[in-house]
Amino acid sequence: MKRYGEHRFPGKLFVVEGIDGSGKSTQLSLLHQWLRAEGYGTVFSEWNSSPLVRDTTRRGKKKKMLTPATFCLIHATDFADRMEHNIIPLLKAGAVVLCDRYIYTAFARDVVRGMDPTWVRELYAFAVKPTAAFYFRTPLEVAMNRLINGRNGFKFYEAGMDLELSGDPVESFELFQGRILEEYEKMIPEFDLTVVDATRPIEEQQAQMRQQVKAKLAQAKRLRVAP
Amino acid sequence: MRETYGVLLPEMKLDNLPGKLIVIEGTDGVGRSTQIRLLKPWLEQGGHAVVDTGMTRSKLASGGIKQAKQGHTLGRVTLNLFYATDFADRLENDIIPALRAGFVVLTDRYIYSLIARAVVRGIDPSWIRTVYNFALIPDAVFYLRIGVDDLLPRVVFSTGFDYWESGMDLHPSEDMYESFRKYQPALLAEFDHLAEEYRFEVIDASRDVPAVFEDLRAGITRVLADKEQTPPVSVPTQAAREGLDLQESSAAGSNGAGS
User: Fold this and answer.
1) Residue B8 covered by a domain
2) How far, in Å, CA of A160 to CA of A111, rounded?
């Protein structure tokens, strides 16, 4: 079993992280289009874990059966499934793999729920270390403004309602995300996250991302596909 | 006070868990479930409330794990984490509440079987131990130990070979017998390591059912004796008992002198 940082694959792995409303998904999809146009074999890794794990996760959430420990473990199971069946084979094949959220999301979320930080990191030791991880830093107010208009309500676990911070889902979400932001800040130096100022114009953020991705790809074996 | 193997789960309170956690470990076919079927009524006749639990019996994950084993579709890390999810669910929802209520919890396997199987399948031994770091340290682990030559006829004449217990995922071969012959010795060797590391009480399970049952009863009686003598404050049991004896005998002595 290879551990974080020990894998050697011809492919490259780029991930985006940040709270909801940080604009990370928009940036990742722009990057995806550009990489394809450049002729790289690029795959957007979906959360298409096997139905067994997915159904268990869904059932646990729907019935509110999950404690911080089982929430953490079922998501780690789900992630492992995706790692073993999707991400690792793609990287072996030399693909450029893009992930919207990665292990850092789990670290932030699980630690806010009271799980031991060292233990959670060790739990995910099987994960491949990304070529680069972009963190879209956003003040809470900015993210909240983007979300309030675009959504109708938050789900129970998404809003951190299990933490009983507030009976009101919107308020609970805001408090929960505030704590998540604190965890992300701690992880920037720890995991060498590349910070993108998500309050800047979309075009500028994308230009920064492309420049940094290009630098990493220059050293890579190019798996070009016909456009 | 109880302890875990290293990490505490959120809201896991370890004080006031007066029940007893008793683990029966051993490889498949060694007779664990037969013994548990005998132990439960024996304990109940002795006035103890008993809860029995075992692997893949959680409300959350048991269905998914059973299906996964049918289709053999999950990767090794994934399957191990699925087991860990099942274990955490049972620990929080079954085992700890029962211990809090003063039950004797008899568990058919615990983290050790899960660790042994994972390690035999190439999972990092230190990683899998850390994953199960949140497990409560049991009051006793009785390990039903058997050699592969004694195990074989039992498996053949009871349930027959099982895909997983023959390690067919590891040693695919024409027939399960060949695979079993390779897999079980590796697994038993791993159990022997764990027996030392976690100080199992080893019971020779190559003997007949009544002989093994007798050893288990003796062992469990000893564990339960600790329970009945444990004072509400956490004083070492042995010292407390000796202290009590001393007071009684000196009181008896002074009475004798006075009369």
Assistant:
1) no
2) 12
